[in-house]
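Data card: per-record layout.
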Amino acid sequence: MRLSFEGRDYELNSGESVLDCLDRHQAGVASFCRNGVCQTCLLRSEEGAVPAAAQQGLKETWKAQGWFLSCMCRPAADMRVTRCEGAGQHVARVLEVHSLSARVLRVRLTRPAGFDYAAGQFIQLSRPADGLMRPYSLASTPDEPFLELHVARLADGRFSGWLAGAQGEEVTLRGPFGECFYVHEPVARPLLLVGTGTGLAPLYGVLRTAIAAGHAAAMRLIHGAADAEGLYLWSALRALAGTHRQLECSASVQDGKVEHGMSSEPLQALVRNCDLPLADARIYVCGNPDFVRGLRKQLYLAGTPLARIHADPFLPPADPAHS
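The structure for this 323-residue chain is written out next.
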């Protein structure tokens, strides 16, 4: 099969994805998770059918224009494709970098003019020097004048290590992306928000947006981490719960000392024992991909419609050497 891209033709091997083919020929297409989640590798089909799997999770307007995830696209016939901008591109500056814990940075960016988003969505952030790109969820809310990210500091991480000292630096962002955001509904519906690690970031934005919107139904937030230090916003969450009666926050710690309000029970057990009517709730699950996929399945089998389960798995780079 033939793959045409930017005026050049490439031989597409049987079963090979469009992204793998273009990578093999060093065509310079950006990618990150290579698992159909981060939307970094979006391309557009100018000719040739796009497999349904390559458009899963994309907006209907994008599908109609032929946009697809090149990492998930394994064509059955010749295709001619081109680059596309599925979302706007903006320039921002790093306002502040602050350690929320030894392993998590709070990074605040200037909010570009015209950049609109819903709390809980994510952006793709790149440094202009070399174009290195990473997806990060937004922990800020749309009424705040800055964009806030919670960044896990990875050992030898190329991007997180750079961000730690990037105050004042210019960055490029694309977005917003994702469907993990607060949904205004005419009928009050319980909310359950469950996250591991920095999967708390989008939940923090969703939660505060719900409170600002006057959400009166019960809300439960459950955060899981390896140890107490991993619960990097625990004090802020407890303070928030103390001023909003409809909100309860709990936490699961795998190892080490369990402090007040925390539990050594597994995160899944805390969800299972939650007092909310799960079949009637709207649920947000973010963080470790295996946990997110597993819990999403459990919730569906327990009666929660998939349309009310918003899942955002935090996938690592496909190549660990490029973390």
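Known properties of this structure: The chain is about 20% helix and 30% strand. The mean pLDDT is 89.

See the next section for split statistics.
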